[in-house]
Design brief:
The protein is mainly β. It is built from two helices and six strands. Helix content is about 10%, strand content about 25%.
Amino acid sequence: MVERLAKAVVALPGRVAVLMDEVAETFCGTGILTPGGKFEGKFRDDCGTVVASGVRGLCPGERVLVKPYDGLWMEDTDAAWVPKGRQVRFYGVASEWWESVVAKVTPERAE
C-alpha cells in the first residue's frame, strides 16, 4: 500500500506525506488501550508511515510519530488514492514539518 501511494504522491521540497495507521484498539501497538464505547472507531494513533518526503532525514516506508490533529488531512472521501478508512496527512504546509513530525519509530525500539 505504501508503495502504491508513493507513486501517487510526490512531496514538494519541505513537505512530508504520512499515511496514518488504521483506527486501532491499542496505541501504536504498545498495549495501551484506546477508549471504547461511544468513542470506538473515532480515535486513531498518532503514528504513521511516510509515503512521500521532500526533506532530508525521512524516507518513504519509515514509521513516525506526529503531533495530534496537526497537518493537512486527506480522507478517503477527499481523494480516490487514499485507502478506504485511512487518512494521509501532509506536514510542512502551514508550519515547518519538524514541528509536527516529532520522532521516528525504529524496529529495535518498538519491541
